[in-house]
Amino acid sequence: MSNLFFVIFLAVGFGIWKALDYFQLPNTFSILLLILTTVSGVLWCYHRFVVMPKRQRKIARAEQRSGQALTDEEKAKIEPISEGSEFLSSLFPVLAVVFFVRSFLFEPFQIPSGSMESTLRVGDFLVVNKYAYGIKDPIFQNTIVAGDKPQRGDVIVFKAPEQALLRTGLGATRAAYAENLALTSKNNMSGVDYIKRIVGQGGDRVIFDMEQKTLQIVYSKEGKPCDVNCETKTFEYSQNPTNPAFPNELELTEKGDVIHNVLISPYRRYAGPEFFPQEGNPTAEWVVPEGQYFVMGDNRDHSDDSRFWGFVPEKNIVGKATYIWMSLEKEPNEWPTGLRFERFFTAIK
């Protein structure tokens, strides 16, 4: 019978998940996990503090009348235990631990696309540190306990702003819509997780050279845009030997706020209208609003990022990607063909 209850439990959970997914809510899985944990917790409390004491009292009275201890079969006849209630309540400790760890400590994440190659590859499974920037509630992403601020160079997982999910392709129409949505709703949040690297934080001026595909950052002062005596960082690049995993791309070492590799496609050319426009700034130049971040993928010419749809509000940040704990040899939308053992348990730089 317990197997039947387990199947029913999974079916109900799947139904709730699909219902939540229909409304495109952020943190759908967290909401589902909270519901299941709460339901099983209520059943556990009822079973522990109501059902079991009542059963023990009945058994004690029966043993007192008979003058001898009852067998398990006799106890079951006096007060049978509901298998369904017992099974569901037994799930509570497991669900509670999973909910706590996933909501406040660590969350697994799988790389679905190549936008962060060669740093992160399709098939990598990551550990995301959820308390690196403070503790947030798992449903609305409101900060409960403040922590360190995200830094330039950090690889972060975040809830994509709604404008990042537009399907109109890169171009003026999408950029105009993104500008309108980003400026009128700074805290918009979708239910889709993205992973990128922070390039600029509040007050920074980010300058992307469309021809050379290089970066320059004019650092902010105390979170505000700098106008005089500014510190400017021009990123330096050096070419690496051809990476066998990416024979058609150039792999460069980028020396900016952190040192890491980026991929460049020799054939990719940019046009001004495809970039996210910011009033008062030239094309491909942005001033990051306070409390928001400018992010880019390490696979520079195959990444849909802040250059095209704008900024990431701090509230959207889920956590900091810290380690690769497993890696499958695979391509997007294909079955794995092996394991990349050399990438197991490696730190993300």
Task: Put the structure in a nutshell.
The protein has 349 residues and is of the alpha+beta class. It has two domains: 1-105, no CATH class; 112-347, Umud Fragment, subunit A, CATH 2.10.109.
Give the amount of beta strand, in percent.
25-35%
Structural class: alpha+beta
Given the structure, what is the number of helices? 7
Low-pLDDT segments, ≥5 res: 168-172
- Under CATH, the homologous superfamily of the largest domain reads Umud Fragment, subunit A
Query: Major β-sheet, in short?
Result: 9 strands, antiparallel
Radius of gyration, whole Å: 26 Å
Which topology of the largest domain does CATH recognise? Umud Fragment, subunit A
Give me the strand/helix succession: HHHHHEEEEEHEEEEEEEEEHEEEE
What is the domain total for the residues?
Answer: 2
Briefly, what CATH class of the largest domain?
Mainly Beta
Query: In whole angstroms, how far apart are the ends?
Result: 50 Å
Strand count: 18
Shape annotation: elongated
CATH architectural arrangement of the largest domain: Ribbon
User: Helix share of residues?
Assistant: 25-40%
